Fold this sequence. Notes:
alpha+beta; Creatine Amidinohydrolase; 2 domains; three-stranded antiparallel beta sheet; 37% helix; binds manganese (II) ion
Amino acid sequence: MQSPDDLRNRREAVARLWDMSRGAALIPGGLPVPVAGTDQYHDFHAHPEFTYLSGARLAGSALAFDPGDGWVLFAPVAGIEERVWVGDGEDLEALAASTGLRVRPLAELQSWLERRRGETVALLGNDDITHHPAAYGVEGWTALEPDVDAELSARLSEQVSESRRTKDSSEIALMRSAAGASRAGHLAALRLARTGMSERQLQIELEAEFFRNGAERTAYGSIVGTGSNGAVLHFSPTSRALRDGEVVLIDAGAEVGGYASDVTRTFPVGPRFEGIQRDLYQLVLDVQQAAIGEIRPGVEYKDLHLGAAERIASGLADLGILRGNPADLVERDVHALFFPHGLGHMLGLATHDAGGCLKGRTPSDRFGLKWLRADLPLQPGYVVTIEPGIYFIRALLTDSGRREQYRDAVDWERVDRLLDFGGIRIEDDVLVTATGADVLSGAIPKSISDIEALRAEANSR
Length: 461
Ligand SMILES: [Mn+2]
């Protein structure tokens, strides 16, 4: 539940940024998408711009703004058939109280638009209204379309993304709840994983605990990969069984009130990290903690990423997997053979939240930078993930072009013996504060001693 005051402040701040003297903005939340062959719909995700400004997540509604007239939420009123099949829907008065908005029946959207014919209209949110206007109660969208200004729409949308970077107290409270539900799920996985259990069974235990602890859904499809599957960055759980001697990687997060958490833990199937697993795990953990330790207002996220890349290169050189000076290795993108993704991303209403790149900054096409999803100076109230990883990815490590390019920089015989290793990633959600960092998911165990204590217990049962 978000405070109506926070929602009002958000809208006022955005309207100030927009600085419109005339025209209007329309922000549809999106229509439910039917599942073919049924009379049901896919799980509904309201457009984040709509939810950010209204606090509502109901399907088939639209938020509208006019600088003279203010904000109004057009919401559907259930007819008899809808009431029979899906229920009464949201009461408009209750909606007005929870959102702090003026709420009107969706049927009035048509006349709101008619009154602005010939004016400039910015279209944000879900543009499905242009394909299915009747579902929003709007006839003849084509007649209104010339009023939609693409440039204005893009500018206003970008300004909403900029606003969304700084989370207010309602948003932070929801993100703490989401992180709490994620903690329960990851703890269950750490306690219940056993040799012979499948990735799918582990996913079920994890997600059940998310839901028991307040999750409304998972923030994204849970990633559970054991053994070599852990090297596939977004691996969907299968019937593959956990084997003693392997590590299992779980990247999964609960969602509460539309807000995501995004957490990764990696742990041994047996009671202990063995041999190189232990060295690599400690390296990834050190890299993650160093990056979190460097977070404070003004720090460039890209510098955190490059710092992590250099520490990974340095650690891999200490272990004899890479050869050369860490700074040179990063300059040549050698680290990206083992750490091919960015250090993390903005988090909020979306798992990869909007506003990750400062205006004017475009992603690099360098192998070691192209998947960096955040490039901006951090400010208090931003929430970012910090998620370094080291993987043995066959697609990269058996590629003859890369092997030739990096012939001198990698102990390829060593790498060939580790191709079934899988991967290690450790990810937490971090709120930037005035002085440093508040790790929202920090109560989820990650030190070797804490993880081994839980795994020893699980293995003794
Ligand atoms: Mn993530």
